[in-house]
């Protein structure tokens, strides 16, 4: 599980039919949790907004956590962080 900050959104008018109707957000992964990319695109089924800190899962946990086990999802926002130590 990763922690990051939502910094933007992605609009895609043409996509896999299993993804239609979903929102995609750009998440900047916290420095101390980063293993690869600085930013990732994650499906958002919980309504996170730009500027909010979120919890993100990847891989099969993303598909299961978003309730879409058959969709081509690699990252999903599964929680909005209300408060926490070491967020920045």
UniProtKB/TrEMBL annotation:
Keyword terms, alphabetized? Bacterial microcompartment, Carboxysome
Q: Which Pfam families match?
A: EutN_CcmL
- Give the PROSITE patterns listed for this entry: BMV
Q: Does the keyword Chaperone apply?
A: no
Which Gene Ontology terms of cellular component type are present?
carboxysome
Location relative to the cell: Carboxysome
Q: Which PANTHER family match?
A: ETHANOLAMINE UTILIZATION PROTEIN EUTN (PTHR36539)
Question: What is the official name of this protein in its record?
Answer: Ethanolamine utilization protein EutN
